Amino acid sequence: MTRLFTEFYQNIFYPILPNVLRLIRQFTFLCLLLCLVFALQSQAIAADFTDNLLKQPPREITISLGNSANELKFEPDHLEFVPGKRYLLHLNNPSQLKHYFTAKDFADSIWTQKVEAGKVEVKGAIHELELKPGAEAQWFFVPIKPGKYSLNCSIAGHTAAGMTGEIAIQ
Ligand SMILES: [Cu+2]
């Protein structure tokens, strides 16, 4: 039995060992090369995707926080978005009261390009916006994660009074 093994190693395994090792090396090299090509390509695709997305004219939607009669509600109180499209959400507060647009889970499910308010442009993630009476803001974003998210105004008493809404990404 031991002899059989020895013969196997000496006559079969050892002679082809260099070839096997060379094959493994070549295969590894090929894999690394493919990985590199794939990584570069997906990076290019991602850059292209972002570029095209930012050139896409945004779909515009308006939401009012409260109204001129000072009712505690969002108008409309239901918003719908499609993932992967660029949006411009116009927010305004036509009331005499301060209001919040609070939708943290929604904010986590979108990619915010920027929020413009007055002469200020804020880039990066936004979780909550406060609008003083008469204020306006423009929120540019791309919905990412489908789901149903709740919206409310976090000023004391406003949520309880019905200042809530629903946002769907689907
Ligand atoms: Cu409010």
TrEMBL record:
Q: Which residues form the Blue (type 1) copper domain?
A: 63-169
User: Source species, please?
Assistant: Anabaenopsis arnoldii
Q: Which UniProt keywords apply?
A: Copper, Metal-binding
Q: Does the keyword Metal-binding apply?
A: yes
Record SUPFAM superfamilies? Cupredoxins
* Protein name per the record: Copper-binding protein
